[in-house]
Amino acid sequence: MSTAGDAFAAALREDIDRLLAAEPEVRADAEDSVHQMRVATRRLRSVLRSYRELLAGKPATGMRAELKWLAGLLGEARDAEVRADRFATLLADHAERADPAELDAVTARLVEAERQHYRTAHDEVLAALDGARYRELREELSGWRTDPPLRPARAEAAAPEVFRKVLRRDLDRVDSLIRTEPTVDPRERVELLHEIRKSAKRLRYACEAAEQVLGDEAAERGDRAKKLQTVLGDHRDAVESHNAILDRAGEAVAAGENAGLYELLAAAEEAAAGRELSRYPATAAALFGTAVTG
């Protein structure tokens, strides 16, 4: 039976390789590359948090902080990219109902502005990748591939015991948030749903790291966590898009422009958010269909 340290080191190596492999693609501005590197960075940070008991505290805390910094840079570019694509799709769906001049003005405020935001943010990412801070992060990660800072006593424990404990703890965290959700003020609900999404994503990544140890037990739970993460992620995207459209509408009105098309787009996003939210109860319940055994 493998030790927890050996099993975790193997999973960690895969996550580090995924992150480092994305860097050249981001430098080339390849399609979806910023997204892939951002996901790899967040995934690695999440796994370090979930399996923190296997790692020496100070190095792990420092690494999570550096990964948070990198994910923030990538997130600025990725969020602009997502908004530009989402706005472009919305406008294509409603183009025939708009006056051409109005369509051009709205496209400029929504799509073109976000694409420019992406280009600026991507330049900032490239500057960071060429900087000393990222170089030191990459060098440390390269060392962790073969020699992560494990806690010797805990790392020698049986892998199934440790991995099940981690999954149970992350599952309990999601469960606690889901149970709290019906009790919160409606004004706080959107943010709590966002926290549930983040917790489901953390559980998913912890499960995926455990698949080589726990097999289907972890894979099935991870799939259910991913579905919950996806539903709440799509809900969050629609809510944020709706709010951004209303903000741009306010700017348009202040500039003496017609806000009619903005109102149509905002209504479409409000409806999209409602559709995703209607899927939430079933996907949340499905997450607990099979308990993680002890």
TrEMBL record:
InterPro entries: CHAD_dom, CHAD_dom_sf. Residues 1-293 form the CHAD domain. PANTHER family: CHAD DOMAIN-CONTAINING PROTEIN, SLR1444 PROTEIN. This is CHAD domain-containing protein. It comes from Nocardia implantans.
